[in-house]
């Protein structure tokens, strides 16, 4: 009786499906069983109707900002998922060290997430975060110090409490300071030995462009200052710059009200370990672009020995002042940087890897001896720097410099419609792909709110990129070429042209260096 009943139910269901989907809904398979061939546009039979979360179109992307009573800003961005990234960004970096010993920010970065009033050691902090599947990191740049934690959303209360302790109550013990000194000495040694000279050249070009002011001050602690930086000096600096008005608590993947409640609980009315200054002596210097040259004569023949040694190269970086990220011209400069593009002569790629950018088409494809040609754009709240890094054999340095100066002059010439469209599309795709990552959204929210008090959303930035015209590129390039150049040179510099000759090439019509005549070569 039971088997008859089961057969009857199967036949009844089959009849229902036949009535609903027709004959085409059945296909016989080798097993003899039949499956309904339901089109993808129809809901599957016998499955409950799904209930989706309803989100207003704009709300998904909206960045919500609240200013606490003490002046600290709390910014959040909703991103659905199990994990969140939360952190504190401070308007403090190496650019603020003009009146103090250079290298304080570097020490602060290395000492982050060490022992605090609440946690006895770094291991205790890591164990606490591990309970919520969390990781932590601290990074300092020329203008920002950023403490960040990624963890499960359920652990938000613990994370904000930990961040408050790490930022405002660090112990900075003698033992931790000694370990930091060792770490910094090793990092400085590594900086001068690594095969990739880009970090060192970036330091050099900033030092040349902004001689002894703001963003031209070194990000790394000079070796002579390592033993001079102590707890008293760090406390004095943090008392001035680690104040609520210069901080943003940013979160991605969290409810805004929940983040604000945690901020009120752990960051409002908290007295930092260094006390509160009666009057903060904040350095408000505006970046002064000076131009100039920074050279390090160095034997690069043994930089990368081994089974595949890198040939001996001389590295040159030439830069010109662009604009700050607060100006309207920032977007045309970003498109121009993308249009120049470039990279290494051995990087694999196709159209998506920048093979159609100017530095590939005009430089690397035509001059086989050029090892690298890459464009970079550094931008700050009051200035910016667009530079081209190139490397080649020491005997061809003069020719390499002339090729780069010619490319700078060509920036103010005709701009092809197709190359401009390609650069704009590449910039938009890079922006959107980067903003798929939660830590990147966190940094974007934090930095924008810290600098401007608001956040431009991705679709707004894409609209600004779309509006860039060939005349905009021409205009910003012409304006940039009126400035004195900044030059950084590393390696065998026997064939390096003088700074005056490089400056003359950048003010000429074709970018050529002045001819020099020698009796003997």
Provide an overview of this structure.
This protein is of the alpha+beta class and 521 residues long. It has helices spanning 2-21, 104-111, 122-130, 156-168, 174-193, 198-209, 231-241, 256-267, 330-340, 358-364, 397-411, 417-434, 438-452, 458-466, 470-480, 499-507; strands at residues 26-28, 34-36, 63-67, 73-77, 83-90, 135-140, 145-152, 247-252, 292-297, 314-321, 342-344, 370-379, 384-392, 486-491. The chain has a six-stranded mixed beta sheet, sandwiched between helices. Helix 11 (397-411) runs parallel beside helix 16 and helix 12 (417-434) runs antiparallel to helix 14. The chain is globular. The model is unreliable at 348-352 (pLDDT under 50).
Walk me through the topology.
Blueprint: H1 2-21, E1 26-28, E2 34-36, E3 63-67, E4 73-77, E5 83-90, H2 104-111, H3 122-130, E6 135-140, E7 145-152, H4 156-168, H5 174-193, H6 198-209, H7 231-241, E8 247-252, H8 256-267, E9 292-297, E10 314-321, H9 330-340, E11 342-344, H10 358-364, E12 370-379, E13 384-392, H11 397-411, H12 417-434, H13 438-452, H14 458-466, H15 470-480, E14 486-491, H16 499-507
Parallel strand pairs: 4-8, 9-14
Antiparallel strand pairs: 1-2, 3-4, 5-7, 5-8, 6-7, 10-13, 10-14, 11-12, 12-13
Helix pairs in contact: 2-5, 4-8, 9-12, 9-15, 11-16, 12-14
């Amino acid at each position: 009786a039971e088997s008859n009943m089961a057969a009857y139910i199967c036949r009844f269901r089959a009849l229902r499906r036949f009535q609903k989907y027709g004959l085409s809904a059945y296909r016989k398979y080798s097993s003899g069983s039949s499956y309904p061939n339901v089109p993808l546009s129809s809901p599957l039979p016998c499955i409950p109707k799904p209930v989706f979360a309803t989100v207003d179109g704009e709300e998904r992307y909206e960045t919500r900002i609240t200013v606490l009573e003490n002046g600290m800003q709390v910014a959040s961005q909703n991103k659905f998922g199990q994990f969140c990234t939360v952190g504190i960004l401070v308007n403090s970096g190496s650019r603020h060290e003009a009146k103090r010993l250079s290298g304080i920010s570097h020490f602060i970065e290395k000492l982050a997430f060490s022992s605090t009033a609440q946690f006895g050691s770094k291991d205790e902090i890591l164990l606490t975060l591990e309970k919520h599947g969390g990781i932590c990191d601290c990074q300092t740049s020329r203008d920002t110090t950023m403490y960040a934690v990624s963890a499960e959303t359920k652990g938000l209360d613990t994370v904000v409490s930990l961040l408050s302790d790490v930022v405002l109550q660090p112990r900075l013990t003698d033992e931790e300071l000694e370990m930091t000194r060792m770490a910094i000495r090793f990092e400085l040694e590594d900086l001068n030995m690594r095969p990739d000279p880009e970090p060192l050249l970036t330091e050099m070009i900033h030092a040349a462009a902004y001689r002894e002011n703001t963003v031209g001050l070194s990000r790394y602690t000079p070796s002579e200052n390592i033993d001079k930086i102590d707890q008293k000096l760090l406390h004095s600096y943090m008392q001035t710059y680690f104040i609520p008005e210069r901080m943003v608590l940013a979160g991605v993947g969290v409810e805004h009200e929940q983040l604000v409640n945690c901020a009120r609980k752990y960051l409002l009315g908290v007295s930092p370990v260094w006390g509160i200054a009666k009057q903060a002596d904040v350095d408000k210097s505006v970046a002064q672009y000076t131009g100039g040259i920074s050279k390090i004569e160095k034997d690069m023949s043994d930089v990368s020995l081994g089974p595949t040694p890198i040939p001996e190269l001389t590295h040159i970086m030439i830069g010109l002042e662009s604009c700050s990220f607060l100006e309207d011209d920032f977007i045309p400069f970003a498109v121009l940087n993308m249009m120049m593009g470039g990279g290494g002569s051995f990087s694999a790629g196709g159209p998506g890897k920048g093979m159609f950018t100017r530095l590939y088409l005009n430089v690397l494809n035509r001059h086989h001896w050029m090892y690298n040609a890459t464009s970079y754009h550094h931008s700050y709240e009051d200035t910016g720097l667009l530079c081209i890094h190139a490397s080649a054999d020491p005997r061809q340095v003069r020719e390499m410099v002339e090729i780069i100066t010619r490319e700078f002059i060509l920036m103010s010439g005709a701009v092809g419609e197709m190359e401009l469209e390609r650069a704009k599309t590449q910039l938009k795709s890079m922006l959107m792909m980067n903003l798929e990552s939660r830590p990147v959204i966190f940094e974007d929210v934090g930095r924008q709110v810290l600098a401007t008090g608001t956040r431009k959303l991705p679709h707004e930035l894409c609209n600004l990129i779309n509006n860039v015209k060939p005349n905009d590129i021409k205009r910003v390039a012409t304006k940039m070429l009126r400035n004195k150049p900044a030059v950084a040179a590393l390696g065998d510099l026997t064939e390096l042209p003088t700074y005056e000759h490089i400056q003359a090439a950048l003010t000429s019509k074709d970018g050529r260096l002045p001819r020099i005549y020698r009796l003997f070569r």
